[in-house]
Here is the input.
Amino acid sequence: MRQNKLNELDGKAWLKFTKTWFVHNPKARGAREKLHPAKFPESLIEEFILFFTKKGETVLDPFLGTGSTLVACDSTGRRGIGIELLEKYAVIARERTKQKVIEGNALEVDKLVDNVDFVITSPPYGPMLNKKGLAQEKREEEKLDTKYSEEESDLGNVHDYGMFIEKLAGVFKKVKKILKEKGYLVIIIQNYRDGGVYRTLAWDVAKALSAEYTLVGERMWCQDNKTLYPYGMGYSFVPNVHHHYCLVLRNDKTGISP
Here is the structure.
């Protein structure tokens, strides 16, 4: 392999990562982390950090949650910065890591953070968490959060799908201002069913950012250990969505939106 300017992996590890789908079954979440309705695993984030950065570089997560990205930075020797809107999750994140946790709004990311080398995040999935279903009922029974909050500033509470896409894309357009040239942005996101409509959230976000970033590919995280629910059984096909798209975008466009 020619001189490796991106990461510290050998050729075998590099090649393995470029496979466009993978199965990742993380260990069970701790009691505090389980409170968050959409936490993603540190071990998964570690793999992306190891590929897209070198030790000592700075990683940003503008939708931090309970701190998975910063914990992954701890274990890989990277500097981490996370932005979290809600105090209850920011408190948990600070208990889990010594990395920088900013309690603030991701819509102001360019005012809260300076230059970074890599960005990875799993943003709110629009109104997905607001719908009632078997999975949500189970979390309610266990007295766990089924949505992030009731706050108006929470993107998860934007009920108009088109407006949600616009606001979410607006965050990543501001991220572009602080992400180094040729730096990568990874967005972990999922298509979902919204009543009788199947929302292609991952594809719509990628399209909304096409004038700002180059979409260089995707990796599909397949989950084969989740509960199967009998949605539509006996009368209609309703999918159990057990995969996420990890969109990989590169900051090599010259224009920056105001």
